[in-house]
Amino acid sequence: MRILLSRTDRIGDLILSTPAIATVRASFPGAHVTMVTSPYNRVVMERNTDVDELVSLPRAVKPSAFGAGRQGYDLAIALAPREPDLRLVGATRAPVRAGYTYQRRWLARLTAPLFVNRLMISEADPELSERDPKRLVRHEVEQLLDLVALVGARERVSGLRLDVTDADRAATAGLPGGAIVLHLGQRWFAGGSTLASTLELVAALSALAPVVITVAPECASAVPAFGKQGAASALLEGLPFFEWAAVFERAACVVTVDTGATHVASAMRRPTLVAFEHRYFRLNSQEWAPYGVPHVLVRKPDSQDEASLAQFRDEIVRGVAGLLHA
After folding, report:
1. Structural domain boundaries in the chain
2. pLDDT tens track of the chain, all 326 residues?
3. Residue 229 near residue 238 (C-beta atoms within 8 A)
4. What is the pTM of this model?
5. Which of 37, 223, 261, 315 is the most exposed place for a label (fewest CB within 10 A)?
6. In sequence order, what are the residues at sequence separation of 6 or more whose Cβ sits closer than 8 angstroms to the Cβ of residue 34?
7. Radius of gyration for the chain, computed over Cα atoms and rounded to the nearest angstrom
8. Can you tell me the distance from the alpha carbon of 285 to that of 136, in angstroms, rounded to the nearest whole number?
9. Same fold flag, 2-149 and 167-324
10. Edge to edge, what strands does the sheet with 253-257 contain?
C-alpha cells in the first residue's frame, strides 16, 4: 500500500499533524508513507520515522502539477484545509483521497469534491465562535485524527512529536535550568501589546525565575532594547530548529504569543502561557491552544492604553506564577 500525506503550510500546524501522521503509520504498518511538505516547514519531519519518504513542494511548481507527477498511490490525504494541498492530493488520482475545509468556506466546500472523495467539514468558524460563547471547536489535533479515521486510520496516537537529540540538548546545556522561556514574536509589538510593555513584562517575570528569550528572525531589531535592559539571562537569536526546541525542553514554563512556538512547547511537554489576539479569541484559543500540557490562555487587550497594558502584563505574570507552582 502506498500513502501520500500533504501539509505545506506552517511549522506549528505540521507539528499538530504529527499525531495524525503517527496514526496513519500505526494503522497501516506495512504501507510506504510519503510526506509532502513545503521547504519552510520540512524541518518538522526531517527526523520523523513515521514516514518513509519526505519530499518538498518546490516554490516554483504548482501543487496540481506536482501531484500529477506522483501517481500510483492508493490513498492520499490533505492534512491542511487549503486549496494547494487539496489540489495536490486531487492530482494524484489516488482511489481514496481525503481532506477537510471549514464550515462557512462556501467556495471551498463547493470545489473540494473536485479534488477529494472523502471530505470532512470542520466546525471552526471565527464569526460563529464570537457570536456564541458556548460554541465548542475541537482542537486541530482532534480534527486531524478524525480526518484520518475517515480513511480507516483508527489506531490513534495522540502525542505530538519532535525528535530532539542529545546533541541538541548539549548545545543548550549552558542555559539556566528551570527558566521561564519567552519567545519573542512580532505580535508582542502590535495589536494590544508594545515593545515598552513587553520590556516591563520581562522585568516582572525575572522576579519569578531566570528569563531566557528566544527571538524570531523578524524581531531581530528589538534585541538591543532587551539587551540594554538586562533583565533576561540570555537572548538567543538564529537557533537551529531542534536546538530551539531543546531550549523549550529545559524550561519550567514557556511564554509566547500565538505562533508556532506554542506547539513546539507542547511537543516538548512544557507548561505554556499563550497570549492570543483579541480578535477571534474564542476560536483560536480552542483550535490552537497548547495540546496535552498545563497551560494558561490570555486574551490581548483591544487597545494599547497603559491601564489595559498593565492588566495584560499582570494576567501573564499571575498565569506564569500559577504554572510554576502547579
Report:
1. 2-149, 167-324
2. 999 999 999 999 999 999 999 999 999 999 999 999 999 999 999 999 999 999 999 999 999 999 999 999 999 999 999 999 999 999 999 999 999 999 888 999 999 999 999 999 999 999 999 999 899 999 999 999 999 999 999 999 999 999 999 999 999 999 998 999 999 999 999 999 999 999 999 999 999 999 999 999 999 999 999 999 999 999 999 999 999 999 999 999 999 999 999 999 999 999 999 999 999 999 999 999 999 999 999 999 999 999 999 999 999 999 999 999 98
3. no
4. 0.96
5. 223
6. 2, 3, 4, 5, 51, 52, 53, 54, 55, 70, 73
7. 21
8. 11
9. yes
10. 234-237, 211-215, 180-184, 253-257, 272-276, 295-299
Q: Which residues pair with 54 in a beta bridge?
A: 35
* DSSP symbol at 52: S
Angle between the N-to-C axes of helices 306-324 and 195-205, in degrees from 0 to 180, rounded to the nearest 10: 30
Report d(CA 178, CA 162) in Å as an integer.
21
Q: Dig out the grid coordinates for 29 from the structure.
A: 504498518
Give the E-state strand segments of 26-112 in sequence order.
32-37, 53-56, 75-78, 96-102
**145 φ/ψ angles, rounded to the nearest 5 degrees:** -65, -40
Could you give the 3-state DSSP secondary structure of residue 170? helix
Closest by CA position to 288, among listed 147, 89, 141? 141
Reported CATH class of domain 2-149: alpha beta
In CATH terms, the superfamily for domain 167-324 is Glycogen Phosphorylase B; (3.40.50.2000)
Cα–Cα distance, 211 to 179 (Å, whole number): 6
Q: How many CB atoms lie within 10 A of CB 218?
A: 11
The phi-psi region of residue 45 (left if phi > 0; otherwise alpha if psi is between -120 and 50; otherwise beta) is: alpha
Cβ within 8 Å of residue 213, ≥6 positions away:
181, 182, 183, 184, 202, 226, 232, 234, 235, 236
The amino acid present at 289, given as its one-letter code, is A
